[in-house]
Amino acid sequence: MYLSREEERILKGYEGEAKARALEVIVRVGEALGAPRLIEIKHAHISGVSYENIGDYGLELIEGFWRLGARFSVPTTVNPISYDSEDLTSIPGVTLSKPYVEAQEAIARALSGMGAELEFTCTPYYAGVLDRYELRMGDHVAWGESSAVAYANSVLGIRTNREGGPLALMAAIAGRTYYYGMHIDAERKPRVSYVLEAGRALEEAEAGVLGELIAEAHRDERPPHVVAAFGSDSSIKEFLAALGTVSDIAMAHIQGVTPEDPGGEVREVVRIPWRELEERLEEKMPGGPVDIAYVGCPHASLEELAKLARMLEEKGAPRAKIIVSMSRSVYMKALSLGLVERLRRSGVAIVRSSCLIVSPFSKHNKGVRLATNSYKAYHYLSRKGVKAYLARLEDLWKLI
Description:
Blueprint: H1 5-11, H2 17-33, E1 38-40, E2 44-46, H3 51-67, E3 76-78, H4 98-113, H5 129-132, E4 142-143, H6 146-156, H7 165-174, E5 176-178, E6 192-197, H8 204-217, E7 225-227, H9 233-246, E8 253-254, E9 268-273, H10 274-284, E10 292-295, H11 302-315, E11 321-326, H12 328-336, H13 339-345, E12 348-352, H14 361-364, E13 369-372, H15 375-382, E14 387-390, H16 396-399
Parallel strand pairs: 2-3, 2-4, 6-7, 6-9, 7-8, 10-11, 10-13, 11-12, 13-14
Antiparallel strand pairs: 1-5
Helix pairs in contact: 2-7, 3-4, 6-9, 8-9, 8-10, 11-13
């Protein structure tokens, strides 16, 4: 791998041992993948910061770099943590021990000490990072959250591979990543197109099922080209989150959405009947009432919160508990618009900076019946012992 003089100096420790170690990891991964060189990045987003997910080993890794003197070389945001730090009781049924809270606080303290912005969200694009850090189409970043990676590449035109949490951490410290995959123009050109034969726009749960269908079918190394009508940005978000849940796909070239020319390399067209999507969704829907309805995975947007508030006011508060997760910044915007008050008046439990997937929710709610419009939440929670089901948002009132 070619290294610049500055990169050679970093590896030799002239900018500190922590940065040298981080860059060494980036170089070794890049060499293993056959990357010819490194590229500078403008932003990093680190996943794997929830104590529930990474435990003591992850805590030791993050704290270790902080104590070694590591500082982030680029603006850096981080994924959700294991609870709402402003309301430890916001996740129903969950009781947190003092050592557990202290461990999560230690992770946050180390990340902050290295220079991270503690937004704690899986949707940094809703938290204003594009404008705050002047991220534009074609910019190179290193993001470690699968749904955010797919959204960045597919909707924003920002370039990132799907980095694991530790690798995104190293890239944030080094300020560089390896030139490979989604950073290369040619690797972003689709060769297989998937056409959904449907007469109406997809809502969130339906979009998630489409993501599952395409992820299962797609075997090409290039991103899939997708022709489908999406009803909203939240449905696009749910489609991309599902795609990243079922596979390691880091991008989908969505017709009319992706701000790049797909080129003329598409050589195969796969048609997906609408009935196939409906049948998949029906298989995942609950056969009767549920105990909890969950919205906000990935973290909810203002658009989603407004839609939910309207539905609650029109249909009335349901019997079951409704949980919504969001970032701190979206919460503050929703608070100023009166959306938080409207949601809480309807009995909604609001979870900031966390979500049910990366929290201890599943440990404390085994056997609970939960319905969600998020394929990603359905997928992971059902594997953690929760009786999770997938349903359209408008259908939740039939279930709760």
